[in-house]
Write a structure and sequence with these properties.
By secondary structure, this protein is an alpha+beta fold. A 4-stranded mixed β-sheet has the order 1-2-3-4, with helices on both faces. It is elongated, with a radius of gyration of 29 Å. Helices cover 46% and strands 17% of the residues. β3, α4 and β4 form a beta-alpha-beta unit. It has helices at 4-37, 50-59, 89-97, 127-142, 158-169; strands spanning 68-75, 100-107, 113-120, 147-151. The chain is built from 5 helices and 4 strands; from the N terminus they run ααβαββαβα.
Length: 175
């Protein structure tokens, strides 16, 4: 009889453990199924940050639509190709694949890139942002495309924006 009690306790303990494992497995599988039912993505409120949207609302009327088209957040890999003879195809592509230019100005008829426009806010003072800015500056310059940098502000002067863009689009005098 003494051996029967511990044996019975062990059986009950094992039975309780099996029930607990079954409930835990059901809970985990149920939650996983619910997670799979939920989409992994959701629509953003806007493709532009509030700062970019404010600048865009000022910038767009400054661009003569008969001459230019303005695009937002264009991936650098959609603007530039990697030189096949560079020997660094994948590494070079990776550097431009996940970066974008805030605004891209293209010829209205041909859609040839005319200039990039970057809106520089306070985040551009951070070390990583400075490295990215230098990379973009060098990339655009090496392809002879102006990259116009405009400091983020509370309010924008449309005339100043037009003048800044016009200054960068002037043909550069050859030395």
């Amino acid at each position: 009889m003494l051996l029967a009690i511990p044996f019975m306790a062990v059986v009950l303990l094992l039975l309780a453990l099996m029930v607990a494992c079954a409930l835990a497995a059901r809970y985990l599988v149920g939650n996983k199924a619910n997670a799979l039912d939920r989409p992994a993505y959701r629509l953003k409120e806007s493709i532009l940050t509030p700062t970019e949207a404010e600048f865009f609302r000022c910038l767009e009327p400054c661009i003569p639509s008969s001459d230019y088209r303005l695009f937002t957040k264009v991936r650098l890999a959609d603007i530039f190709d990697v030189n096949e003879d560079s020997g660094k195809n994948q590494a070079a592509f990776n550097r431009i694949n996940a970066k974008h230019v805030d605004f891209l100005l293209c010829d209205a008829q041909t859609l040839v890139v005319v200039a990039g426009i970057e809106l520089d806010d306070s985040s551009h003072t951070k070390h990583r942002a400075k490295k990215n800015d230098t990379f973009k500056d060098t990339l655009f310059e090496s392809c002879k495309i102006p990259l116009i940098r405009i400091r983020a502000q509370r309010q924008y002067d449309p005339e100043a924006i037009v003048a800044t863009i016009a200054q960068h689009l002037q043909p550069q005098a050859s030395p």
